[in-house]
Amino acid sequence: MANEHGSIPRKPRVVIVGAGFAGLQAALHLAGKPVDVLLIDRRNHHTFQPLLYQVALAALSPGDIAQPIRSIFRNRRNVKVLMDEVVGIDTHAKSVHLRSSATMQYDYLILATGSTHSYFGHDAWEPYAPGLKTVEDAIEIRRRILLAFELAERQALEHGSHPPLNFVVVGGGPTGVELAGAISDISRLYMREDFRHIDPSKAHVIVVEGTPRVLASYPEDLSRKAAEELQALGVEVRANAQVTDVQPGYVIANGQKIESVVTLWAAGVQASPLGKMLGAEMDKRGAIIVDLYLNPAGHREIFVCGDLAHAVENGKQLPGVAQPAMQMGVHAAKEILTDLAGNPRTPFHYFDKGDMATIGRHSAVADVKWPFNAHMSGLSAWMAWLTIHLYFLIGFRNRIIVMLHWIWMYFALSVGPRLITGSQKLPGWGKLIGAAPPDGTRLDPNSPGAVETPPS
Predict the structure, then answer these.
(1) Which residues have a Cβ under 8 Å from the Cβ of 400 and sit 6 or more positions away?
(2) Whole-model pTM?
(3) Which of 140, 178, 209, 452 is catalytic?
(4) What is the pLDDT of residue 447?
(5) Is 236 a catalytic residue?
């Protein structure tokens, strides 16, 4: 409706940076409301991160767990999507500066850019031990794992033997445990008939954990059950093991050298660098310290959600997982609408429904806190895990495809397309096979088995 001057009043603009769990939920909750929403993300898709490890192990394809952001908001006319990257924030002018040189004004700003890998000051390890946060990470991990088996097959064919297929996962949290179980599954079950010169089932998976137990944030009984399930899968867990070096072909933990054809990093995260642009108080991992309303000090118009937020409730920092992020996104959207309605704000309260992690093809552990308190493990926890993850997947098509993939995998013992794309070099492979094979011939330095020099 036009005002007394004949012009249409401008709707408040809400700029959301990041289309992860928090940003997506905030935008969905503001869709159709009397605000203009601009959702900015470096990528054009939302990724369901809890299932990334299944892409890394070829159980699912990237398109099964990712959805184009524009298609999600196709029918939400007040939500605009921009594929760009924020490189600066001017809190005085209430604007964000984009890599494309554009500047976007805001009335409210929601920051939800998540986290990235933390190598605890050893960023030089990253080329040798990739982490798992994006679809690109999953594809790279898949490439390395599948390539290790292919190079071992070729080495066995040419020389009669191959280096031990040791896969080292640094970190025994949920991601590390899920990766380790999936690697064991794919080697023992899904590829056992595919090779003629190697036995994939003899691959050895090692989880290196710096604390006394895997899943350290879980209750002790579930942590112990997870360790037992991993052991049943043939996974070796080395607890209280501090990694001091990661190099092509090996890891040093507690002074011991562990040879590794593929090393994966699941040991730590740090908040996205966007927090530094805000100039607000941060914790040691770069997360922005927020108050009870998810606002940084002195900025009621800015909300920080998800992994980027250092939020405390009942004296404990909220975990950087999907459920708190989703609830934070919804809360930020509600508080903006509350402001516009002229009502007082309410503090954020995290409704903890519990945690779960899957271990292999038919086992999981679950610390259930709603609708009842229970510790679950084994097949029942795995079925609960399947149901919940299908429910939260974005898009009806994704749910159906993933469900059919899982049914096919379970009964046919067959995974999805095991495609190796990109480079056919594996860091450290040349060192593992030695400079001179047993018959005296040398590998061509330009061959796929040559040592790959990491990017500078």
Answers:
(1) none
(2) 0.90
(3) 178
(4) 40
(5) no
